Amino acid sequence: MSRKIERLINLTIALLATKRYLTKSEIFRIVDGYVGSPESKERMFERDKDDLRTLGIEIEVGSFDPLFNDEAGYRIKVESYQLELGEITPIELSLLSLAAQSWQGATSNNAAQSAIQKLNSIGVPADAMDLPALTAKITSSFADISLITAAIAANDLLEFSYISSNLVQQKRVVIPFSLASRAGHWYLACVDQEVQEIRTFRLDRIAGEIAQKANLEAFTAPTNFDFAATLADNHTATFATIDVRKNKGHFLRMLATSSKDLGEWDQIRVPIFNLESLCSQVLWHGEDALVQEPAALRSLVIENLQALVNHHG
């Protein structure tokens, strides 16, 4: 990640988390990346504001007290932090999904915690819970998604080694036609050239590099393939029991299959398709969610919380 992109992310996090307007001097103290002379910082900040507005992120300008001529301050309202998509193609949707994935963990990573900690240290109320919820985390195993997307657009061949469920590694030659994600994993739907049948592959089971090669034969993607149904058939869920504070934990409640009233808390059952993904959702809700079982999920949550404490004190 470039320094400028990291600074823009840090600035967005700070302006979203703040409960009041932040002055330029406060922003320069809180947000990592503003260095150099006062004039250099001013120029960087003006360019950053223009870049965020170009991306459709509205920065609100105001003051602490409208009756006095205070220094102007800045913040981003959560309700204005959204994207109007309009009509988009399947390829564009795949790329947008990839971009959304890269934001996962923004509220618990070092940049966010540092910005929020600095805001609170200078007396500015700030809360990570004010940051909008984001989606599944991108990992290094997904670095070839852009290549796969290009192959889908061109009807090209892909060659790769795939580790099957019984840990046997085999070479595959396929024509990809669709990408989808479920329970924190990316899946590729394609026509396997060896058997001339539709197959699905989980991207994190691809070993080594993926090679894209030109397809010299005509290819028409299947029109009657239901990717969602196929992925649903291939998943057997276990469940987590989580206590959620009344009127809190809305994202966890959306995942729940049942709920039991415990008074101040509700106890919900949530299917586990991916332990790390569910752990991120629990961490998102902070003190409003408490894992009862399974032990593996509870331990993972505690491990992540301990890592945050060790890093930030």
Account of the protein in words:
The protein is of the alpha+beta class and 313 residues long. It folds into three domains: 3-89 and 99-130, Arc Repressor Mutant, subunit A, CATH 1.10.10; 140-228, SH3 type barrels, CATH 2.30.30; 238-312, Alpha-Beta Plaits, CATH 3.30.70. Helices cover 36% and strands 24% of the residues. The chain contains ten helices and twelve strands. The chain has helices spanning 3-17, 24-30, 38-54, 90-101, 110-121, 145-154, 227-233, 250-255, 275-284, 295-312; strands at residues 22-23, 60-62, 73-75, 157-163, 169-182, 185-192, 197-202, 206-213, 238-245, 258-261, 265-272, 289-293. The strands form three sheets. The chain has a five-stranded antiparallel β-sheet with strand order 7-6-5-4-8. Strands 10-11-9-12 form a four-stranded antiparallel β-sheet. A three-stranded antiparallel β-sheet has the order 1-3-2. Strand 4 (157-163) and strand 5 form a beta hairpin. Helix 1 (3-17) crosses helix 5, helix 4 packs antiparallel against helix 6 and helix 9 crosses helix 10. The longest helix has 18 residues, at 295-312. Mean pLDDT is 76; it is low at 96-108 and 129-142.
List the helices and strands and how they pair.
Elements: H1 3-17, E1 22-23, H2 24-30, H3 38-54, E2 60-62, E3 73-75, H4 90-101, H5 110-121, H6 145-154, E4 157-163, E5 169-182, E6 185-192, E7 197-202, E8 206-213, H7 227-233, E9 238-245, H8 250-255, E10 258-261, E11 265-272, H9 275-284, E12 289-293, H10 295-312
Antiparallel strand pairs: 1-3, 2-3, 4-5, 4-8, 5-6, 6-7, 9-11, 9-12, 10-11
Helix pairs in contact: 1-5, 4-6, 9-10
